[in-house]
Amino acid sequence: MKLAQRNKVSPEFNMSSMTDLVFLLLIFFMLTSTLVTPAALDVVLPKSKAQTVKKATVTVTIDKDLNYSVGTEVVAAEDVEAFLLQELNKNPETVIVLRVDESVPTGKSVEVMDIAYRNKIKLVLATDPK
Question: Which sign, positive or negative, has the C-alpha torsion 88, 90, 91, 94?
C-alpha cells in the first residue's frame, strides 16, 4: 500500500520581507544623515576633489567675518589654542578639521595650523567636493 505525502516543503525562499526591511533601513539612514550639521558657523568652503576625513573629532571654523568656533562653541581668536588643548587632554588622538571660508585671508588659517603644529595635533583642511 502506497501512501502519498501531503506536506511537501518548498525549497524556495521568500525575499520580500527581507527587501522591505532593507528599504526601511535605507530610508531611515538617508533621513537621519541629512539632519546632521557639521559646525556652528556657516561658511563657503573652497572647491576641491579631495575628500575630508570621515572621523572628525574637533572642528575649528572661521567664517567670513573672522568669527572662530571650536565645535559648536563660538570663541575668541586668542582662546582657540586653549580650547584645542582641552580637547587634546581628553583624547590624545584628536584630529582637527579646519573649515575656513574661502574669503578669509590665508594668514588666519595658518595661525590655526601653527597651533596644531606646535602642539603636535593632526590637522585636515576641509574643502567642498562639489
Answer: negative
From the number of C-beta atoms within 10 Å of its C-beta (0-12, 13-18, 19+), residue 104 rates as: middle
Can you list the domains of the chain with their CATH numbers? 58-125 (3.30.420.270)
Select from 59, 53, 26 the least CA-distant residue to 40: 59
pLDDT band at 25 (very low <50, low <70, confident <90, very high): very high
Task: Count Cα neighbours of 9 within 13 Å in the Cβ-side half-sphere.
Answer: 2
What is the rounded distance in angstroms from the CA atom of residue 129 to the CA atom of residue 94?
23
**H helix intervals, 2-105:** 16-33, 80-90
CA nearest to 130, candidates 97, 102, 108:
102
Measured CA to CA, the distance from residue 9 to residue 50 in angstroms comes to 54
Cβ 116 vs Cβ 33: under 8 Å: no
**In the 8-state DSSP scheme, what is residue 103?**
T
Q: Global pTM?
A: 0.57
Residue 101 CB: number of other CB atoms within 10 A?
20
